[in-house]
Amino acid sequence: MGAYLFRRLLLVVPTLLGIIIINFAVVQFAPGGPVEQMLAELRGQGQTLGRITGEGGGEVRTRNAAEARGTAGGSEGPVGAYRGAQGLDPAIVAEIERAFGFDKPATTRFVEMMTGYLTFDFGRSLFRDRPVVELLVEKMPVSISLGLWSTLIIYLVSIPLGIRKAVQDGSRFDVATSGVVLVGYAIPGFLFAILLVVFLAGGSFLQWFPLRGLLSPGADTLPFWQRALDYAWHMALPTLTMVIGGFAGLTMLTKNAFLDEIGKQYTVTARAKGNTEGRILYGHIFRNAMLLIIAGFPAAFISILFTGALLTEIVFSLDGLGLLGFESAIRRDYPVMFATLYIFTLLGLVMQIVGDFTYTLVDPRIDFEARR
């Protein structure tokens, strides 16, 4: 097992590098970039260039951009490629390109970026004028909170529910819970989030829960137990939104996995030997049926943690990694965009390895070294 894990870890490097190379190459052809947007703003809105400093990745600001949340992008080429440059002093255009780092060839910028990534140095955001690591650390508690609690609750609810539905297949309990599961599966998560806001967060009816943030203002001065309660109060509706959208699929997966194992010959043999139903279920069936559920855990965790939380973060005004990555992609803030891609991909690859390792914990009979 040790040799297998070592080989998988070695494969992480070329896989991660290939993903970054492909995405870096694709965005070079994306229309609209930080230089083009800045020049269009200067030309179209009549703004004056307030300050341009290009040291260490640079900072480009206008009077308007200094007040707003920056938008960023990246396209490369000669000055004439930027439509917004028409009518502007070429020296100003060249200085803006230098400040954003687009005066260098794409290959040079890629090598410099990957060299920094080896030490988790992601540079500075093009328009936020802050280190990317600082932005990631600031947004991470929101995404970790949503992903951790949602995944924990989904598994704690779905696995026991799926097992009971499999054991009582066709009963009234199975039919009734199937209706609930289908409703949860059919309603989009963002729609359920909006309904919760309307009915429980002061939208039009009750105001039992807060609408934004992880803690109330001044919560840092409260005792630990009061901060914990305040945190749970803020996380209740976002977590419920994530759970409703995620538990349906896992419940049915668990049920079908157990039903498949219940119908196999070794189960009939175990009953013929006089084993109790509990012994058969948890001593024989459980270990085999859980393998399929464990196989989907890494993908489910990554989906909940980063992609599934995006709309939830928007509806409940939670400024997390999902929202940060989405805004960076739209605004083409290259340092932030590629840093989030790097972190998400690295975590996803590591979670796949963790999933393989968990296989052996559930069923020691599995030997990855013996596979041909």
Q: How many extended strands?
A: 2
Query: Do you know the CATH architecture of the largest domain?
Result: Orthogonal Bundle
Count, helices: 15
Poorly predicted runs: 46-85
Strand order of the largest sheet: 1-2
Helix content: 55-70%
Write the element-wise H/E pattern from the N-terminal end onward. Answer: HHEEHHHHHHHHHHHHH
Number of domains: 2
What composes the largest sheet?
A: 2 strands, antiparallel
Task: Describe this entry's structure for a reader.
- The chain is mainly alpha-helical and 372 residues long.
- The protein has helices at 2-27, 34-44, 63-67, 90-100, 106-117, 132-167, 172-186, 189-200, 224-262, 265-272, 277-295, 297-307, 309-315, 321-331, 334-362, and strands at residues 49-53, 59-62.
- The chain is globular.
- It has a two-stranded antiparallel ribbon.
- The model is unreliable at 46-85 (pLDDT under 50).
- It folds into 2 domains: 21-129, no CATH class; 133-370, Orthogonal Bundle (MetI-like fold), CATH 1.10.3720.10.
What key attributes describe this structure?
2 domains; 372 residues; mainly alpha; single chain; MetI-like fold
Topology:
Elements: H1 2-27, H2 34-44, E1 49-53, E2 59-62, H3 63-67, H4 90-100, H5 106-117, H6 132-167, H7 172-186, H8 189-200, H9 224-262, H10 265-272, H11 277-295, H12 297-307, H13 309-315, H14 321-331, H15 334-362
Antiparallel strand pairs: 1-2
What's this, in brief?
It is found in: Cell membrane. This protein is mostly helical and 372 residues long.
